[in-house]
């Protein structure tokens, strides 16, 4: 038995019984009924060979076809090709009976000599006269040595023959085991077997066709990935030439409906196909077709066989049915995308709803496709403007210029001044994100000047003031307007206006954290104009973050920003601010993985598309640096083009972040240059407070590294004055650490002790680790090794806790390697101190104590022992003793050899410099 005849034992056994009966003189008929491709012809061939083997029976064969079905007696002429009296036309009933009698008589005479087997394939395509003759013959088979074997497609009708002389056998699709055997026989594995089981629905013809098409490599997801077209052609051929009208229409409906077929159900699919639910063949073929077209390969092949116009009408009807049954919006929209244009309002609404669902799922490409198609519909101007605005917002991160063009189009679509005023803030925010703050301010001014509504004008002015923070000159002017506005503004506008003034005054160093919070906290419960809500949240969250109320700042940000995987809307200037606050608050809290997980997707979407976001890049880069991925952090910062950078505060943050990396690498001069650039940028904005960018502390540490403690002390003292005005532990401790590095000795130890004391009351784990690290080293250098090691152990334990695997689950965030910055620094310090449980290196630069390293680096720069003692406030004899120990550990005998033997971190200032979170 051939492989295609798997699971056909019942049919073959029935044929054997009927053949034995016929050869004994009692003729029988046998009909094999099955769907197309189920192996009817192969089974007929096998039965014929078996029953006629050895000349046991003479075979007369006829193959019916649709082309011959219109010619009377066409089938009979195939069985009796030499009979010249077979008519070519329909006959009156009496004459037809005479022909039938003559043919059966001739058949009986032939069968007397040797039993006959009449094999008729595809009876459903036989002409009606021949079908009537076969019925006439079947009623007389009992006395004839004749076996009549027929095949037919059950979808096209069932032969009506007398049950006394024969039987019908229904051929079922192959089961999974049989298909697996076929696949295995062709040398394929289990994955191919599973594909054939699902994509062929037990149809042997399709199984063989698909096996012939499969090629090496991964399993195909579309027909184009197959190595041939036999599978597709088999389905196309059946749909176009062999399927009944009902089967054809139902197949196309199933292919079009796709995953929505289960929701629609049988009756609705029949309706979609233009058929009656109680069609006589429904129960016979629907289940098999459902199984076949549940697979995307089969659906794709079916669609290739359809007429485009027919498909369009079918898609429209199925889309409506899916919509009415509450199918997922994506399933409805997927049908509408294939229409030339959505012609009805419900279609446009479905596309818009599907776009929003896709946005929430992070599928922006899908969402933009839905909205673009919705815009092909005949729409009222206001409706078109609304869709255009939403599409522009989605396109902006992925193509800034395209998104801005779309937003400009939305603005121009509105003739009404109030409607234009509703679109202008989105366009302005997009322009700010593109780095074109000046253009954004012009747009806001032009639209605002045309508004004759006082309240709306104040809303636009306040929104423009938030945008103005990205330009130094515009920011000063905006704050002056906000001062005036805050005194007379409506209650719903006042919180943001006053908040912006407060933000400016904090930067100028006029306010303490307590005073700023006194302004912000009462207004959080006040009603705010919905158009200003996100801007107010952004300003309030910024002030809360600066005041070290990190959890509250993040809560405000999360109130307005979408949950992952959706990307935030950059056409809202307030949300732009909230994105920055959310990232920086997580960084300050030491949640480095969260910084990356929440913001890397947005940066990836914007990469190379015109939206630069230097502050967000800086936050992510610093998080990578903290996790030990310094090279990646460097690449992120290097990817920002500063040639067209303006006076936005974001670029000052970038300079601070870049200086941080330079410090981590011991490049003091480059770090100093970047810190001073940050300072100049902040001064241009009247921002002197260290609350955002502690550039003076960083510059002081770099100056200590360069051997200029006097300049460093000046900056550190200035920073400390501003920090004490603001009054938060984080800012004060940063300045104290910088001053400690500049003064060294007992005064430095006192500064570090104070810094640790104030940090223990603050949510500043990174600063606490860094300060404990410096304090421990300073105590060891001062001769108090026990207390110093306790500090180092505490710092190491805090670093371990800070960089432990994330228990809250950020699946997209990287792990912190063992070489994370804080773990590496605290571990090295413990080893250098000789603490128990650590191995202290006795040779090489890693074996140097903190004091030895500071002295060696100054000596390597060419300073004399006397100069070193003056810089570090040490006696000359102490300097000589430290150098003697360092020479032995480094294996050198001359000062000129020192520079080549130094590796890793440099001075005591270097550890503080690398520890400082230089961010805003």
Structural features, described:
With 920 residues, the protein is mainly alpha-helical. The protein is 64% helix and 3% strand. The protein is built from 45 helices and 5 strands. The chain has a 5-stranded parallel beta sheet with strand order 2-3-4-1-5, with helices on both faces. Strand 3, helix 5 and strand 4 form a beta-alpha-beta unit. It is elongated and about 135 Å long. The two termini are 80 Å apart. The model is unreliable at 807-812 and 904-920 (pLDDT under 50). This is LuxR C-terminal-related transcriptional regulator. Keywords: ATP-binding, Nucleotide-binding.
Quick description:
By secondary structure, the chain is mainly α. It is 64% helix and 3% strand. It holds the Pfam family AAA_16.
**Helical residue percent band:** 55-70%
Uncertain segments are 807-812, 904-920
Strand order of the largest sheet: 2-3-4-1-5
Percentage of β-strand residues: under 5%
Globally, the shape reads: elongated
N- and C-termini, Cα separation = 80 Å
Estimated structural class: mainly alpha
What gyration radius follows from the Cα positions, in whole Å?
42 Å
Largest sheet: 5 strands, parallel
How many extended strands? 5
Mean pLDDT: 88
* Structure annotation, total helices: 45
């Amino acid at each position: 038995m051939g492989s295609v005849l798997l699971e056909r034992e019942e049919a073959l056994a029935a044929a054997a019984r009927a053949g034995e009966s016929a050869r004994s003189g009692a003729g029988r008929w046998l009909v094999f009924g099955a769907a197309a491709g189920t192996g009817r012809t192969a089974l007929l061939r096998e039965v014929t060979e078996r029953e006629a083997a050895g000349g046991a029976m003479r075979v007369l064969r006829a193959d019916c076809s649709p082309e011959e079905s219109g010619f009377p007696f066409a089938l009979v002429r195939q069985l009796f090709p030499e009979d010249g009296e077979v008519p070519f036309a329909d006959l009156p009933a009496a004459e037809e009976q005479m022909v039938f009698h003559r043919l059966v008589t001739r058949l009986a005479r032939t069968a007397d000599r040797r039993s006959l087997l009449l094999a008729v394939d595809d009876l459903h395509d036989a002409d009606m006269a021949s079908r009537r003759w076969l019925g006439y013959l079947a009623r007389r088979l009992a006395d004839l040595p004749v076996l009549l074997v027929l095949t037919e497609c059950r979808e096209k009708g069932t032969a009506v023959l007398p049950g006394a002389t024969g039987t019908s056998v229904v051929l079922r699709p192959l089961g999974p085991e049989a298909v697996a055997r076929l696949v295995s026989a062709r040398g394929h594995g289990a994955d191919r077997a599973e594909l054939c089981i699902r994509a062929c629905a037990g149809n042997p013809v399709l199984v063989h066709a698909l096996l012939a098409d499969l090629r090496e490599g991964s399993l195909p997801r579309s027909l184009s990935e197959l190595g041939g077209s036999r599978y597709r052609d088999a389905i196309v051929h059946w749909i176009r030439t062999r399927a009944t009208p009902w089967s054809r229409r139902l197949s196309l409906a199933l292919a079009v409906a796709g995953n929505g077929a289960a929701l629609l159900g049988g009756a609705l699919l029949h309706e979609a196909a233009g058929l009656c639910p109680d069609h006589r063949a429904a129960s016979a073929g629907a289940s098999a077709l459902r199984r076949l077209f549940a697979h995307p390969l089969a659906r794709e092949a079916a669609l290739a066989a359809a007429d485009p116009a027919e498909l369009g009408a079918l898609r429209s009807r199925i889309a409506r049915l899916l919509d009415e049954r509450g199918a997922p919006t994506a399933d409805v929209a997927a049908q509408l995308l294939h229409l030339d244009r959505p012609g009805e309002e419900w279609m446009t609404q479905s596309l818009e709803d599907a776009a929003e669902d896709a946005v929430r799922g992070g599928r922006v490409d899908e969402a933009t496709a839905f909205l673009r198609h919705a815009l092909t519909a005949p729409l009222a101007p206001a409706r078109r403007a609304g869709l255009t605005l939403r599409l522009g917002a989605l396109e902006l991160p992925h193509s800034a210029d395209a998104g801005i063009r779309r937003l400009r189009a939305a603005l121009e679509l509105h003739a009404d001044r109030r409607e234009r005023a509703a679109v202008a803030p989105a366009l302005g925010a997009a322009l700010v994100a593109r780095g074109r703050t000046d253009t954004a301010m012009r747009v806001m001014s032009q639209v605002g000047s045309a508004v004759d509504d006082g309240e709306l004008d104040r809303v636009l002015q306040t929104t423009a003031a938030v945008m103005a923070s990205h330009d130094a000159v515009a920011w000063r002017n905006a704050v002056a307007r906000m001062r005036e506005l805050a005194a007379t503004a409506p209650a719903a506008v006042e919180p943001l206006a006053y908040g912006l003034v407060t933000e400016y005054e904090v930067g100028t160093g006029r306010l303490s954290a307590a005073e700023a919070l006194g302004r912000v906290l009462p207004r959080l419960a006040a009603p705010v104009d919905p158009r200003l809500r996100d801007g107010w949240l952004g300003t309030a969250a910024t002030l809360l973050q600066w005041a070290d109320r990190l959890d509250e700042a993040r809560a405000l940000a999360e109130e307005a920003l979408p949950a992952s995987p959706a990307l935030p809307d950059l056409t809202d200037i307030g949300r732009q601010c909230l994105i920055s606050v959310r990232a920086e608050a997580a960084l300050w809290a030491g949640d480095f993985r969260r910084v990356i997980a929440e913001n890397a997707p947005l940066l990836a979407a914007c990469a190379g598309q015109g939206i630069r976001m230097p502050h967000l890049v800086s936050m992510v880069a610093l998080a990578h640096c903290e996790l030990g991925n310094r090279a990646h952090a460097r690449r992120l910062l290097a990817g920002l083009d500063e040639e067209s950078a303006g006076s936005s505060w974001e670029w000052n943050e970038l300079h601070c972040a870049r200086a941080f990396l330079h410090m981590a690498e011991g490049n003091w001069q480059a770090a100093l240059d970047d810190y001073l650039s940050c300072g100049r940028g902040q001064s241009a904005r009247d921002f002197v407070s260290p609350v955002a960018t502690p550039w003076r502390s960083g510059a002081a540490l770099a100056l200590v590294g360069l051997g200029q403690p006097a300049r460093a002390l000046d900056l550190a003292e200035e920073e400390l004055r501003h920090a004490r005005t603001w009054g938060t532990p984080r800012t004060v401790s940063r300045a104290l650490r910088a001053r400690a590095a500049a003064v060294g000795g007992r005064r430095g130890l006192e500064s570090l002790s104070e810094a640790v004391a104030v940090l223990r009351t603050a949510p500043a784990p990174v600063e606490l680790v860094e300060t404990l690290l410096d304090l421990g080293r300073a105590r060891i250098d001062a001769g108090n090794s026990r207390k110093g090691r306790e500090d180092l152990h505490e710092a190491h334990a805090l670093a371990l806790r800070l960089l432990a695997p994330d228990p809250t689950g950020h699946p997209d965030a990287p792990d912190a390697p063992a070489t994370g910055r804080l773990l590496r620094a605290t571990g090295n310090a413990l080893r250098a101190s000789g603490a128990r449980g650590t191995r202290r290196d006795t040779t090489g630069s890693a074996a140097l104590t903190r004091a030895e390293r500071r002295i060696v680096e100054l000596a390597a720069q060419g300073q004399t022992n006397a100069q070193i003692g003056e810089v570090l406030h040490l006696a000359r004899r102490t300097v000589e003793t430290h150098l003697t120990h360092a020479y032995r550990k480094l294996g050198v005998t001359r000062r000129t050899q020192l520079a080549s033997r130094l590796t890793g971190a440099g001075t005591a200032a270097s550890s503080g410099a690398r520890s400082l979170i230089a961010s805003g």
